[in-house]
Amino acid sequence: MPSSVQLFRDQKxxxxxxxxxxxxRLFEDPEFPASxxxxxxxxxxxxxxxxxxxxxxxxxxxxxxxxxxxxxLHQGSLGNCWxxxxxxxxxxxxxxxxxxxxxxxxxxxxxxxxxxxxxxxxFRFWCFGIWTEVVIDDLLPTIDGTLIYCxxxxxxxxxxxLLEKAYAKLAGSYEALDGGSAADAIVDFTGAVAxxxxxxxxxxxxxxxxxxxxxxxxxxxxxxxxxxxxxxxxSNEVEAKTGLVPGHAYSVTAIRKLHLGERLTFSFxxxxxxMVRLRNPWGNREWSGAWSDNxxxxxxxxxxERKSLGLTVENDGEFWMTFEDWCKNxxxxxxxxxxxxxxxxxxxTWETKMMHGAWAKNSxxxxxxxxxxxxxxxxxxxxxxYIFDVKKAEDKVLVSLQQEDRRRSKKVGKGDNIIIGxxxxxxxxxxxxxxxxxxxxxxxxxxxxxxxxxxxxKKILKQGRYILIPTTYLPDLPLPVLAAPSxxxxxxxxxxxxxxxxxxxxxxxxxxxxxxxxxCAQDVFAG
Length: 527
Description:
Elements: E1 6-7, H1 13-23, H2 36-39, E2 50-52, H3 54-57, E3 73-74, H4 81-90, H5 94-100, H6 104-107, E4 120-127, E5 130-137, E6 140-143, E7 146-147, E8 151-152, H7 159-171, H8 182-190, E9 193-198, H9 208-223, E10 227-232, E11 248-259, E12 272-279, H10 303-309, E13 318-322, H11 323-329, E14 332-337, E15 350-352, E16 355-359, E17 386-403, E18 420-427, E19 442-446, E20 454-472, E21 479-488, E22 502-503, H12 514-526
Parallel strand pairs: 1-5
Antiparallel strand pairs: 2-6, 3-8, 4-5, 6-7, 9-14, 10-11, 10-14, 11-12, 12-13, 15-21, 16-21, 17-20, 17-21, 17-22, 18-19, 18-20
Protein backbone atom coordinates (compact mmCIF):
# COMPACT_ATOMS: atom_id res chain seq x y z
CA MET A 1 0.00 0.00 0.00
CA PRO A 2 1.20 3.60 -0.59
CA SER A 3 3.13 5.07 2.34
CA SER A 4 1.45 8.46 1.98
CA VAL A 5 -1.90 9.39 0.47
CA GLN A 6 -3.45 12.79 -0.19
CA LEU A 7 -7.19 13.26 0.21
CA PHE A 8 -9.17 14.56 -2.76
CA ARG A 9 -11.29 17.51 -1.64
CA ASP A 10 -9.94 16.80 1.86
CA GLN A 11 -12.66 14.20 2.44
CA LYS A 12 -11.82 11.76 5.24
CA UNK A 13 -13.44 8.39 4.56
CA UNK A 14 -13.42 6.93 8.08
CA UNK A 15 -14.63 10.15 9.66
CA UNK A 16 -17.47 10.57 7.14
CA UNK A 17 -18.51 6.93 7.48
CA UNK A 18 -18.51 7.13 11.27
CA UNK A 19 -20.71 10.23 11.17
CA UNK A 20 -23.20 8.56 8.83
CA UNK A 21 -23.44 5.43 11.00
CA UNK A 22 -23.89 7.49 14.16
CA UNK A 23 -26.61 9.59 12.52
CA UNK A 24 -28.19 6.55 10.85
CA ARG A 25 -28.14 8.05 7.40
CA LEU A 26 -26.55 7.17 4.07
CA PHE A 27 -23.73 9.30 2.72
CA GLU A 28 -24.54 11.85 0.02
CA ASP A 29 -21.44 13.41 -1.48
CA PRO A 30 -21.62 17.22 -1.62
CA GLU A 31 -18.46 17.32 -3.75
CA PHE A 32 -19.96 15.14 -6.51
CA PRO A 33 -23.73 15.34 -6.08
CA ALA A 34 -26.33 13.16 -7.79
CA SER A 35 -27.10 15.87 -10.33
CA UNK A 36 -26.76 16.76 -14.00
CA UNK A 37 -23.56 18.66 -13.24
CA UNK A 38 -21.86 15.41 -12.28
CA UNK A 39 -23.17 13.67 -15.40
CA UNK A 40 -22.31 16.09 -18.18
CA UNK A 41 -21.26 19.59 -19.18
CA UNK A 42 -22.52 19.51 -22.78
CA UNK A 43 -24.18 16.29 -23.93
CA UNK A 44 -26.96 14.95 -21.72
CA UNK A 45 -27.75 11.22 -21.65
CA UNK A 46 -30.79 10.17 -23.64
CA UNK A 47 -33.64 9.42 -21.28
CA UNK A 48 -34.63 10.34 -17.75
CA UNK A 49 -31.74 9.68 -15.39
CA UNK A 50 -32.42 8.56 -11.84
CA UNK A 51 -29.68 8.10 -9.28
CA UNK A 52 -30.10 4.87 -7.36
CA UNK A 53 -28.10 2.96 -4.81
CA UNK A 54 -27.15 -0.70 -5.43
CA UNK A 55 -29.56 -1.82 -2.72
CA UNK A 56 -32.38 -0.27 -4.79
CA UNK A 57 -31.29 -2.05 -7.98
CA UNK A 58 -30.99 -5.63 -6.72
CA UNK A 59 -31.10 -7.88 -3.71
CA UNK A 60 -27.85 -8.64 -1.87
CA UNK A 61 -25.53 -6.16 -3.61
CA UNK A 62 -21.80 -6.81 -3.35
CA UNK A 63 -18.61 -5.04 -4.29
CA UNK A 64 -17.28 -8.36 -5.66
CA UNK A 65 -19.08 -11.56 -6.59
CA UNK A 66 -16.70 -14.55 -6.69
CA UNK A 67 -13.68 -12.29 -6.75
CA UNK A 68 -12.59 -9.84 -9.42
CA UNK A 69 -12.14 -10.70 -13.09
CA UNK A 70 -11.51 -9.00 -16.42
CA UNK A 71 -14.79 -10.62 -17.53
CA UNK A 72 -16.73 -8.53 -15.01
CA LEU A 73 -16.88 -5.37 -17.11
CA HIS A 74 -19.25 -3.97 -19.70
CA GLN A 75 -18.77 -0.49 -21.09
CA GLY A 76 -22.23 1.07 -21.11
CA SER A 77 -23.25 4.14 -23.12
CA LEU A 78 -20.22 6.32 -22.35
CA GLY A 79 -17.38 6.52 -24.89
CA ASN A 80 -14.77 5.36 -22.39
CA CYS A 81 -13.67 2.00 -23.76
CA TRP A 82 -10.14 3.14 -22.87
CA UNK A 83 -11.08 3.29 -19.17
CA UNK A 84 -12.91 -0.05 -19.22
CA UNK A 85 -10.00 -1.70 -21.07
CA UNK A 86 -7.67 -0.39 -18.35
CA UNK A 87 -10.00 -1.80 -15.67
CA UNK A 88 -9.87 -5.19 -17.42
CA UNK A 89 -6.08 -5.05 -17.26
CA UNK A 90 -6.18 -4.00 -13.61
CA UNK A 91 -8.43 -6.94 -12.70
CA UNK A 92 -5.65 -9.32 -13.79
CA UNK A 93 -3.28 -8.20 -11.00
CA UNK A 94 -4.47 -8.64 -7.43
CA UNK A 95 -1.67 -6.62 -5.86
CA UNK A 96 -2.45 -3.71 -8.16
CA UNK A 97 -6.23 -3.55 -7.81
CA UNK A 98 -5.89 -3.82 -4.03
CA UNK A 99 -3.99 -0.51 -4.16
CA UNK A 100 -6.86 1.11 -6.07
CA UNK A 101 -9.58 -0.45 -3.88
CA UNK A 102 -8.02 -0.30 -0.39
CA UNK A 103 -9.37 -2.46 2.45
CA UNK A 104 -11.89 -3.97 0.06
CA UNK A 105 -13.14 -6.42 2.66
CA UNK A 106 -13.96 -3.57 5.04
CA UNK A 107 -15.78 -1.78 2.21
CA UNK A 108 -17.77 -4.86 1.17
CA UNK A 109 -21.49 -5.07 1.95
CA UNK A 110 -22.10 -7.43 4.85
CA UNK A 111 -25.72 -8.65 5.11
CA UNK A 112 -25.00 -9.79 8.68
CA UNK A 113 -24.24 -6.23 9.82
CA UNK A 114 -26.49 -3.93 7.78
CA UNK A 115 -26.04 -1.19 10.38
CA UNK A 116 -22.44 -0.75 9.18
CA UNK A 117 -23.55 0.12 5.65
CA UNK A 118 -23.30 3.89 5.11
CA UNK A 119 -23.37 4.18 1.30
CA UNK A 120 -19.77 5.43 1.18
CA UNK A 121 -16.74 4.01 -0.66
CA UNK A 122 -13.17 5.04 -1.41
CA PHE A 123 -10.71 4.47 -4.23
CA ARG A 124 -7.11 5.53 -4.84
CA PHE A 125 -5.46 6.85 -7.98
CA TRP A 126 -1.87 7.82 -8.76
CA CYS A 127 -2.37 11.48 -9.65
CA PHE A 128 0.68 13.27 -10.99
CA GLY A 129 3.02 11.26 -8.83
CA ILE A 130 0.94 11.19 -5.63
CA TRP A 131 -1.53 8.54 -4.49
CA THR A 132 -4.86 10.31 -4.07
CA GLU A 133 -7.89 8.94 -2.22
CA VAL A 134 -11.31 9.73 -3.69
CA VAL A 135 -14.44 9.28 -1.56
CA ILE A 136 -17.84 8.72 -3.21
CA ASP A 137 -21.39 7.84 -2.30
CA ASP A 138 -22.98 4.85 -4.02
CA LEU A 139 -25.72 6.71 -5.89
CA LEU A 140 -25.34 5.56 -9.51
CA PRO A 141 -26.98 6.96 -12.68
CA THR A 142 -29.69 4.73 -14.14
CA ILE A 143 -32.37 4.87 -16.82
CA ASP A 144 -35.41 2.64 -16.36
CA GLY A 145 -33.72 0.95 -13.43
CA THR A 146 -30.59 -0.03 -15.41
CA LEU A 147 -27.06 1.32 -14.95
CA ILE A 148 -26.21 3.45 -17.98
CA TYR A 149 -22.43 3.43 -17.69
CA CYS A 150 -19.81 0.80 -16.80
CA UNK A 151 -21.31 -2.21 -15.04
CA UNK A 152 -20.66 -5.85 -14.26
CA UNK A 153 -22.07 -8.80 -16.16
CA UNK A 154 -23.29 -9.98 -12.74
CA UNK A 155 -26.38 -8.06 -11.65
CA UNK A 156 -25.42 -7.64 -7.99
CA UNK A 157 -21.70 -6.78 -8.43
CA UNK A 158 -20.77 -3.09 -8.33
CA UNK A 159 -17.00 -2.60 -8.07
CA UNK A 160 -16.64 -1.43 -11.67
CA UNK A 161 -19.54 1.03 -11.52
CA LEU A 162 -18.25 2.53 -8.27
CA LEU A 163 -14.66 2.70 -9.53
CA GLU A 164 -15.87 4.52 -12.65
CA LYS A 165 -17.80 7.00 -10.48
CA ALA A 166 -14.69 7.77 -8.41
CA TYR A 167 -12.67 8.32 -11.59
CA ALA A 168 -15.45 10.54 -13.01
CA LYS A 169 -15.38 12.60 -9.80
CA LEU A 170 -11.64 13.07 -10.23
CA ALA A 171 -12.25 14.19 -13.84
CA GLY A 172 -15.12 16.51 -12.95
CA SER A 173 -17.98 14.60 -14.59
CA TYR A 174 -18.86 11.37 -16.37
CA GLU A 175 -18.80 13.12 -19.74
CA ALA A 176 -15.19 14.17 -19.11
CA LEU A 177 -14.32 10.45 -19.47
CA ASP A 178 -15.57 10.41 -23.06
CA GLY A 179 -12.44 9.70 -25.10
CA GLY A 180 -9.02 9.01 -23.66
CA SER A 181 -6.01 6.72 -23.44
CA ALA A 182 -5.95 3.34 -21.71
CA ALA A 183 -2.31 4.00 -20.86
CA ASP A 184 -3.30 7.12 -18.89
CA ALA A 185 -5.85 5.17 -16.86
CA ILE A 186 -3.39 2.34 -16.19
CA VAL A 187 -0.79 4.86 -15.01
CA ASP A 188 -3.45 6.37 -12.73
CA PHE A 189 -4.20 2.90 -11.35
CA THR A 190 -0.61 1.81 -10.83
CA GLY A 191 2.02 4.53 -11.21
CA ALA A 192 3.49 2.44 -14.02
CA VAL A 193 5.90 3.66 -16.70
CA ALA A 194 3.89 3.86 -19.93
CA UNK A 195 5.30 3.38 -23.42
CA UNK A 196 3.17 3.84 -26.54
CA UNK A 197 4.20 2.16 -29.79
CA UNK A 198 2.81 2.98 -33.23
CA UNK A 199 2.58 -0.43 -34.91
CA UNK A 200 1.95 1.05 -38.35
CA UNK A 201 4.84 3.51 -38.26
CA UNK A 202 7.12 0.78 -36.93
CA UNK A 203 6.02 -1.54 -39.76
CA UNK A 204 5.58 -4.44 -37.36
CA UNK A 205 3.20 -6.21 -39.73
CA UNK A 206 5.92 -6.28 -42.41
CA UNK A 207 9.17 -6.88 -40.55
CA UNK A 208 9.14 -10.32 -38.91
CA UNK A 209 12.33 -9.74 -36.92
CA UNK A 210 10.92 -6.59 -35.30
CA UNK A 211 7.62 -8.40 -34.77
CA UNK A 212 9.37 -11.14 -32.80
CA UNK A 213 11.35 -8.62 -30.72
CA UNK A 214 8.10 -6.90 -29.82
CA UNK A 215 6.43 -10.19 -28.92
CA UNK A 216 9.28 -11.16 -26.58
CA UNK A 217 9.17 -7.71 -24.97
CA UNK A 218 5.40 -7.90 -24.44
CA UNK A 219 5.71 -11.44 -23.09
CA UNK A 220 8.35 -10.31 -20.58
CA UNK A 221 6.29 -7.29 -19.50
CA UNK A 222 3.18 -9.44 -19.04
CA UNK A 223 5.04 -12.13 -17.07
CA UNK A 224 6.49 -9.49 -14.74
CA UNK A 225 3.14 -7.98 -13.85
CA UNK A 226 2.91 -5.22 -16.45
CA UNK A 227 -0.34 -4.22 -18.13
CA UNK A 228 -0.90 -3.94 -21.88
CA UNK A 229 -3.69 -2.45 -23.97
CA UNK A 230 -4.07 -1.90 -27.70
CA UNK A 231 -6.08 0.19 -30.10
CA UNK A 232 -7.30 0.34 -33.70
CA UNK A 233 -7.24 3.84 -35.20
CA UNK A 234 -10.46 5.01 -36.82
CA SER A 235 -8.64 5.56 -40.11
CA ASN A 236 -7.41 1.96 -40.21
CA GLU A 237 -9.20 -0.07 -42.88
CA VAL A 238 -10.17 -3.05 -40.76
CA GLU A 239 -12.65 -5.23 -42.60
CA ALA A 240 -16.04 -5.44 -40.94
CA LYS A 241 -16.03 -9.23 -41.24
CA THR A 242 -13.06 -9.50 -38.84
CA GLY A 243 -15.26 -8.50 -35.90
CA LEU A 244 -12.73 -5.89 -34.74
CA VAL A 245 -13.87 -2.34 -34.02
CA PRO A 246 -11.93 0.70 -35.31
CA GLY A 247 -11.56 3.56 -32.84
CA HIS A 248 -11.73 1.09 -29.98
CA ALA A 249 -9.41 0.04 -27.13
CA TYR A 250 -8.86 -3.59 -26.11
CA SER A 251 -7.12 -5.04 -23.06
CA VAL A 252 -4.45 -7.71 -23.50
CA THR A 253 -5.29 -10.46 -21.02
CA ALA A 254 -2.70 -13.11 -21.97
CA ILE A 255 0.36 -13.68 -24.18
CA ARG A 256 1.51 -17.21 -24.93
CA LYS A 257 3.69 -19.36 -27.14
CA LEU A 258 1.48 -22.21 -28.29
CA HIS A 259 3.09 -25.57 -29.10
CA LEU A 260 0.91 -27.51 -31.51
CA GLY A 261 2.61 -30.88 -31.13
CA GLU A 262 3.60 -33.57 -33.60
CA ARG A 263 0.21 -34.06 -35.19
CA LEU A 264 0.92 -31.28 -37.66
CA THR A 265 2.67 -31.97 -40.93
CA PHE A 266 4.00 -28.43 -41.04
CA SER A 267 7.65 -27.51 -40.77
CA PHE A 268 9.31 -27.31 -37.38
CA UNK A 269 8.86 -23.53 -37.25
CA UNK A 270 5.15 -23.87 -37.80
CA UNK A 271 4.77 -26.01 -34.68
CA UNK A 272 5.06 -22.99 -32.44
CA UNK A 273 2.54 -20.16 -32.59
CA UNK A 274 2.83 -16.76 -30.97
CA MET A 275 -0.58 -15.90 -29.55
CA VAL A 276 -2.26 -12.98 -27.81
CA ARG A 277 -5.59 -12.93 -25.98
CA LEU A 278 -7.67 -9.76 -26.02
CA ARG A 279 -10.87 -8.50 -24.46
CA ASN A 280 -13.40 -6.10 -25.96
CA PRO A 281 -14.80 -3.78 -23.22
CA TRP A 282 -18.24 -4.15 -24.78
CA GLY A 283 -18.33 -7.73 -23.49
CA ASN A 284 -19.18 -9.04 -26.96
CA ARG A 285 -18.18 -8.64 -30.63
CA GLU A 286 -15.05 -10.73 -31.06
CA TRP A 287 -12.40 -11.44 -33.66
CA SER A 288 -13.79 -13.82 -36.28
CA GLY A 289 -10.59 -14.73 -38.13
CA ALA A 290 -8.08 -17.52 -37.60
CA TRP A 291 -8.00 -18.88 -34.03
CA SER A 292 -11.26 -17.18 -33.09
CA ASP A 293 -13.47 -19.08 -30.64
CA ASN A 294 -15.16 -21.37 -33.17
CA UNK A 295 -12.40 -21.62 -35.77
CA UNK A 296 -11.15 -24.92 -37.18
CA UNK A 297 -7.62 -24.17 -36.00
CA UNK A 298 -8.45 -25.12 -32.41
CA UNK A 299 -8.91 -28.73 -33.49
CA UNK A 300 -5.13 -28.87 -33.78
CA UNK A 301 -4.79 -28.21 -30.05
CA UNK A 302 -5.31 -30.79 -27.32
CA UNK A 303 -8.09 -30.38 -24.78
CA UNK A 304 -5.48 -29.98 -22.04
CA GLU A 305 -3.79 -27.17 -23.96
CA ARG A 306 -7.12 -25.45 -24.56
CA LYS A 307 -7.89 -25.65 -20.86
CA SER A 308 -4.52 -24.17 -19.94
CA LEU A 309 -5.23 -21.29 -22.32
CA GLY A 310 -8.60 -20.65 -20.71
CA LEU A 311 -10.40 -21.01 -24.04
CA THR A 312 -14.14 -20.43 -23.77
CA VAL A 313 -16.49 -20.60 -26.75
CA GLU A 314 -18.74 -17.76 -25.64
CA ASN A 315 -19.63 -14.33 -26.94
CA ASP A 316 -18.00 -12.73 -23.90
CA GLY A 317 -15.73 -10.29 -25.71
CA GLU A 318 -12.54 -12.30 -25.09
CA PHE A 319 -10.69 -14.06 -27.90
CA TRP A 320 -7.32 -15.33 -29.11
CA MET A 321 -5.50 -14.37 -32.30
CA THR A 322 -2.00 -14.90 -33.66
CA PHE A 323 0.51 -12.16 -32.98
CA GLU A 324 1.00 -11.78 -36.72
CA ASP A 325 -2.71 -11.06 -37.22
CA TRP A 326 -2.63 -8.73 -34.23
CA CYS A 327 0.19 -6.70 -35.80
CA LYS A 328 -1.72 -6.54 -39.08
CA ASN A 329 -4.98 -5.31 -37.55
CA UNK A 330 -4.05 -3.14 -34.57
CA UNK A 331 -2.38 0.24 -34.95
CA UNK A 332 -1.17 1.12 -31.44
CA UNK A 333 -0.11 -0.65 -28.26
CA UNK A 334 0.39 0.82 -24.79
CA UNK A 335 2.92 -1.02 -22.62
CA UNK A 336 2.75 -0.16 -18.92
CA UNK A 337 5.75 -1.48 -17.03
CA UNK A 338 5.58 -1.97 -13.29
CA UNK A 339 9.09 -0.89 -12.34
CA UNK A 340 10.64 -3.46 -10.01
CA UNK A 341 12.37 -1.73 -7.10
CA UNK A 342 12.74 -4.75 -4.82
CA UNK A 343 16.32 -5.60 -3.95
CA UNK A 344 15.28 -9.19 -3.27
CA UNK A 345 13.77 -9.86 -6.69
CA UNK A 346 15.17 -12.50 -9.03
CA UNK A 347 14.54 -10.05 -11.88
CA UNK A 348 16.38 -6.85 -12.68
CA THR A 349 16.03 -4.20 -10.02
CA TRP A 350 15.53 -0.53 -10.84
CA GLU A 351 16.11 2.59 -8.82
CA THR A 352 13.45 5.23 -9.35
CA LYS A 353 13.58 8.95 -8.75
CA MET A 354 10.84 11.46 -9.38
CA MET A 355 10.97 15.23 -9.74
CA HIS A 356 8.15 17.75 -10.01
CA GLY A 357 8.63 20.99 -11.88
CA ALA A 358 6.83 23.60 -13.96
CA TRP A 359 7.27 25.42 -17.23
CA ALA A 360 6.94 28.84 -15.58
CA LYS A 361 6.79 31.85 -17.88
CA ASN A 362 8.76 34.96 -16.90
CA SER A 363 9.73 38.02 -18.92
CA UNK A 364 13.18 37.93 -17.33
CA UNK A 365 15.28 35.37 -19.29
CA UNK A 366 17.20 34.26 -16.21
CA UNK A 367 13.94 33.35 -14.48
CA UNK A 368 11.98 32.05 -17.46
CA UNK A 369 11.44 28.26 -17.47
CA UNK A 370 9.30 27.98 -20.58
CA UNK A 371 11.73 28.05 -23.49
CA UNK A 372 10.21 25.60 -25.96
CA UNK A 373 11.89 22.77 -27.86
CA UNK A 374 15.48 22.56 -29.15
CA UNK A 375 14.55 24.47 -32.32
CA UNK A 376 14.06 27.60 -30.20
CA UNK A 377 17.79 28.19 -29.95
CA UNK A 378 17.61 31.45 -28.01
CA UNK A 379 15.32 30.17 -25.27
CA UNK A 380 15.70 26.36 -25.17
CA UNK A 381 18.17 26.35 -22.27
CA UNK A 382 15.78 28.43 -20.16
CA UNK A 383 13.69 25.28 -19.57
CA UNK A 384 13.86 23.27 -16.30
CA UNK A 385 17.00 21.12 -16.09
CA TYR A 386 17.62 17.93 -14.13
CA ILE A 387 20.90 16.11 -13.63
CA PHE A 388 21.58 12.38 -13.25
CA ASP A 389 24.57 10.05 -13.34
CA VAL A 390 25.06 6.70 -15.06
CA LYS A 391 27.54 4.86 -12.88
CA LYS A 392 28.13 1.66 -14.82
CA ALA A 393 30.12 1.45 -18.05
CA GLU A 394 26.78 1.26 -19.83
CA ASP A 395 23.24 1.34 -18.46
CA LYS A 396 19.64 1.43 -19.61
CA VAL A 397 17.55 4.43 -18.62
CA LEU A 398 13.77 4.77 -18.79
CA VAL A 399 12.40 8.30 -18.72
CA SER A 400 8.71 9.10 -18.48
CA LEU A 401 7.64 12.73 -18.76
CA GLN A 402 4.09 13.48 -17.69
CA GLN A 403 2.03 16.63 -17.96
CA GLU A 404 -0.78 17.39 -15.54
CA ASP A 405 -4.12 15.84 -16.44
CA ARG A 406 -6.32 18.47 -18.11
CA ARG A 407 -9.53 16.47 -18.23
CA ARG A 408 -11.24 18.66 -15.60
CA SER A 409 -10.84 21.61 -17.97
CA LYS A 410 -12.83 19.96 -20.75
CA LYS A 411 -16.03 21.74 -19.77
CA VAL A 412 -14.41 25.12 -20.44
CA GLY A 413 -12.83 23.98 -23.70
CA LYS A 414 -9.28 23.60 -22.36
CA GLY A 415 -9.00 19.86 -21.91
CA ASP A 416 -6.51 19.11 -24.68
CA ASN A 417 -2.94 18.11 -23.89
CA ILE A 418 -0.16 20.28 -25.25
CA ILE A 419 2.83 18.95 -27.20
CA ILE A 420 5.70 18.03 -24.86
CA GLY A 421 8.98 16.13 -25.00
CA UNK A 422 12.52 16.23 -23.68
CA UNK A 423 16.22 16.22 -24.56
CA UNK A 424 19.12 14.48 -22.83
CA UNK A 425 22.67 15.88 -23.01
CA UNK A 426 25.91 14.29 -21.85
CA UNK A 427 27.77 16.94 -19.88
CA UNK A 428 31.02 17.39 -18.00
CA UNK A 429 31.44 14.94 -15.12
CA UNK A 430 31.92 17.80 -12.63
CA UNK A 431 29.01 19.97 -13.79
CA UNK A 432 26.84 21.19 -10.92
CA UNK A 433 25.02 24.14 -12.45
CA UNK A 434 22.53 24.82 -15.20
CA UNK A 435 23.53 24.80 -18.83
CA UNK A 436 23.47 28.26 -20.41
CA UNK A 437 25.54 27.53 -23.50
CA UNK A 438 26.15 24.37 -25.52
CA UNK A 439 29.85 23.82 -26.22
CA UNK A 440 31.33 20.39 -25.51
CA UNK A 441 28.03 18.88 -24.36
CA UNK A 442 26.68 16.05 -26.51
CA UNK A 443 23.01 15.75 -27.43
CA UNK A 444 22.47 12.01 -26.92
CA UNK A 445 18.70 11.50 -26.91
CA UNK A 446 15.51 13.19 -28.04
CA UNK A 447 12.08 11.92 -27.08
CA UNK A 448 9.09 12.03 -29.42
CA UNK A 449 7.23 15.34 -29.26
CA UNK A 450 3.53 14.59 -29.01
CA UNK A 451 0.34 15.87 -27.36
CA UNK A 452 -0.10 12.90 -25.03
CA UNK A 453 -0.11 13.04 -21.25
CA UNK A 454 2.95 10.78 -21.01
CA UNK A 455 6.06 10.80 -23.17
CA UNK A 456 8.44 7.85 -22.84
CA UNK A 457 12.01 7.13 -23.88
CA LYS A 458 14.16 4.03 -23.37
CA LYS A 459 17.86 4.57 -23.99
CA ILE A 460 21.18 2.88 -23.27
CA LEU A 461 23.65 5.47 -22.00
CA LYS A 462 27.36 5.30 -21.27
CA GLN A 463 28.93 6.13 -17.94
CA GLY A 464 28.90 9.81 -17.07
CA ARG A 465 26.77 12.79 -16.12
CA TYR A 466 23.67 13.84 -18.02
CA ILE A 467 21.16 16.66 -18.03
CA LEU A 468 17.51 16.07 -18.83
CA ILE A 469 15.61 19.06 -20.23
CA PRO A 470 11.81 18.67 -20.42
CA THR A 471 10.13 21.14 -22.77
CA THR A 472 6.91 22.18 -24.37
CA TYR A 473 7.14 22.20 -28.17
CA LEU A 474 6.34 25.91 -28.33
CA PRO A 475 7.81 28.45 -25.88
CA ASP A 476 5.74 30.44 -23.39
CA LEU A 477 3.19 27.71 -22.63
CA PRO A 478 3.25 27.45 -18.81
CA LEU A 479 2.27 24.04 -17.44
CA PRO A 480 3.24 21.84 -14.46
CA VAL A 481 5.49 18.90 -15.33
CA LEU A 482 6.51 15.62 -13.73
CA ALA A 483 9.80 14.07 -14.79
CA ALA A 484 10.08 10.46 -13.64
CA PRO A 485 13.25 8.75 -14.81
CA SER A 486 13.95 5.24 -13.64
CA UNK A 487 17.16 3.32 -14.21
CA UNK A 488 18.55 -0.08 -13.47
CA UNK A 489 20.36 -0.21 -10.15
CA UNK A 490 23.72 -1.90 -9.84
CA UNK A 491 23.79 -3.65 -6.50
CA UNK A 492 26.67 -4.20 -4.12
CA UNK A 493 24.97 -6.11 -1.34
CA UNK A 494 23.17 -3.45 0.75
CA UNK A 495 24.51 -0.44 -1.10
CA UNK A 496 22.21 1.49 -3.40
CA UNK A 497 23.32 4.38 -5.59
CA UNK A 498 22.40 7.86 -4.48
CA UNK A 499 21.45 10.74 -6.74
CA UNK A 500 20.45 8.88 -9.86
CA UNK A 501 18.33 11.92 -10.58
CA UNK A 502 18.66 15.18 -8.74
CA UNK A 503 17.39 18.65 -9.36
CA UNK A 504 20.11 20.87 -11.01
CA UNK A 505 20.43 23.12 -10.30
CA UNK A 506 18.78 25.61 -9.37
CA UNK A 507 19.88 28.96 -8.56
CA UNK A 508 22.11 30.98 -10.83
CA UNK A 509 23.69 32.90 -7.95
CA UNK A 510 25.39 29.64 -6.97
CA UNK A 511 27.32 29.74 -10.23
CA UNK A 512 29.95 32.52 -10.35
CA UNK A 513 29.83 32.65 -14.15
CA UNK A 514 26.19 31.75 -14.69
CA UNK A 515 25.10 35.18 -15.88
CA UNK A 516 28.07 35.57 -18.19
CA UNK A 517 27.54 32.12 -19.66
CA UNK A 518 23.93 32.99 -20.38
CA UNK A 519 24.82 36.27 -22.05
CA CYS A 520 27.44 34.55 -24.19
CA ALA A 521 24.92 31.94 -25.22
CA GLN A 522 22.51 34.71 -26.18
CA ASP A 523 25.12 36.36 -28.36
CA VAL A 524 26.13 33.13 -30.09
CA PHE A 525 22.60 31.91 -30.78
CA ALA A 526 21.42 35.37 -31.88
CA GLY A 527 23.94 35.31 -34.69
